[in-house]
UniProtKB/TrEMBL annotation:
Ranges of Basic and acidic residues composition bias in the record: 369-379
Keywords from the named record: Transferase
Residue ranges of the region described as Disordered: 350-379
Annotated GO MF terms: CoA-transferase activity
Protein name: Carnitine dehydratase
Pfam families named in the record: CoA_transf_3
Length: 379
């Protein structure tokens, strides 16, 4: 999607001041920018530290930064200095949203905390992304994705049953925190349309990590048993795991008896569906190892991608395990407009599809301070 295909976007006319760095906050504001918000990314003089998180680099900017900062105008401000604080206030005068992820207490120290800003700008929606919030036993402590995965139980249920607790291979807590922050911003803007008032949004990595614990938290609440690692196998469903084929692993996610019968038919083994050991999901869970052995033998001669597509077309959830390269080059990825390109820029497209006001690539990620003169000159 080249920049020339711009649409107004669902958030046209909404101005967002983005003081956030690294991932959670920038991921939130990129989503808002994709949908038309005018996002002004304000960086300290040294820049967002992720500009240096490479290689790989695009020019002198790391791919990590490029991946979550498109669509924004960029400027540099030293908020520890009175001149920087004054200019921020000028920017906030006609802004709708402020997103920041300073350690709690930092903005307050500069006279820019919510209590102060809400008096000056009562319509401002102030979204803070932090590790643990400002108060409570862990209040004010810094938060990091991997630490949240470890602390909040995600690692304890991720990995092979006989292996160590394992970090999810992407910053899932930071990203879901960014998504929750974006949802919170939209909720607050919707409410402001009625009340005329902004509010403070308190979004933490800790809370968002805990919110991801389904079904493990529900299982624990009902059974009292501490959830354990099961590798790729689901704790509540069978068969729901990776199994070997001739050309690599396939993931089967069979959620009901109809799907199981269709799987057995596709594998030319209808007797499986009639086997008392596999009559219901509860039976299949009880005899999981026997079922795995039966299926592994039946799958041994199959091509994973071909079989997975055949099963999907027959209503059986299945997928070959693909690499990042595989999925980014898949024809359906292109069909879904999930790779955006313009000049040197390539990035993952927006998953939020609106029929009349679709997301657009409005501008590539800014160079450090790229729009300083433009933004200052407008005021």
């Amino acid at each position: 999607m080249p920049v020339s295909t711009l649409t107004a976007g669902a958030l046209a006319g909404c101005r967002v001041i983005d003081l956030s760095r690294v991932l959670g906050g920038p991921y939130c504001t990129q989503l808002l920018a994709d949908h038309g918000a005018d996002v002004i990314k304000i960086e300290p003089p040294a820049g967002d530290e992720t500009r240096g998180w490479g290689p790989p680099f695009l020019g002198d900017t790391a791919s990590y930064f490029v991946g979550v900062n498109r669509g924004k105008r960029g400027m540099v401000l030293d908020l520890s200095a009175p001149a920087g604080q004054e200019l921020l206030r000028r920017l906030l005068a006609d802004a709708d949203v402020l997103v920041e992820n300073f350690k709690p207490g930092t903005l307050e120290k500069w006279g820019l905390g919510y209590d102060t800003l809400s008096q000056e700008f009562p319509r401002l929606v102030h979204c803070r992304v932090s590790g643990f919030g400002a108060d409570g036993p862990l209040g004010g402590l810094p938060g990091y994705d991997a630490c949240a995965q470890a602390m909040c139980g995600l690692m304890s249920v991720n990995g092979d049953a006989d292996g160590p607790a394992t970090r999810v291979g992407l910053p899932v807590v930071d990203m879901v925190t960014g998504l929750n922050a974006a949802v919170a911003v939209l909720l607050a803007l919707n409410e402001r349309a009625r009340s005329g008032l902004g509010q403070f949004l308190d979004i933490t990595l800790y809370d968002c990590a805990i919110s991801l614990l389904h079904p493990h938290a529900s299982n624990y609440f009902f059974s009292g048993k501490v959830p354990a690692r099961t590798g790729n196998a689901h704790p509540n469903i069978a068969p729901y795991e990776t199994l070997p084929t001739r050309t690599g692993p396939i993931f089967l996610a069979v959620g009901n008896n109809r799907q199981f019968a269709a799987l057995a038919q596709a594998l030319q083994a209808p007797q499986l569906a009639g086997d008392a050991r596999f009559a219901s999901n509860a039976d299949r869970l009880l005899h999981r190892q026997a079922l795995r052995s039966e299926l592994s033998a039946l799958l041994a001669g199959h091509d994973a991608p071909r079989l997975a597509e055949q099963l999907l077309r027959q209503g059986v959830p299945a997928a070959a395990v693909q690499t990042v390269e595989d999925v980014l080059n898949h024809p359906h990825t292109r069909h879904r407009d999930m790779v955006w390109e313009d000049g040197d820029y390539r990035g993952v497209g927006s998953p939020v599809k609106l029929s009349r006001t679709p997301a657009s690539l409005r501008r590539p990620p800014p160079a450090l301070g790229e729009h300083d003169a433009e933004i200052r000159g407008a005021r």
